[in-house]
Amino acid sequence: MSALPHETPPRAYANPYRVEAHEGPQTLAALRAELAVLDPAELVAFNARLDAARFGAEVTAVISDARRLIALRTRPEVLAAIAASLAGTSETAPVAALYTHLERRDAE
Predict the structure, then answer these.
(1) Distance of alpha carbon 54 from its chain centroid, rounded?
(2) What is the reported pTM?
(3) How far apart are CA 31 and CA 70, in angstroms?
């Protein structure tokens, strides 16, 4: 989706390998609108999964999956990261950096 001159262009994701909570659609209405533009069948499938999900973790998972789907299909930096990963040209982080990240996250 490209922005018209009077619209604010979409912000690039801070990390193309992760969708943060403040990135992407922030309401169910916005999420449904983006899914409808992306693919009407995706919107129908999302609504069915959301209707079938139990409150709590299941609903959160359905919403998170839909937000990731939008990022995967619409953000150029995410598409570039996927292509680089598939081509084997992406930079990998050292294992120590992964453990540092996980320990910091668990401490929060």
Answers:
(1) 21
(2) 0.62
(3) 9
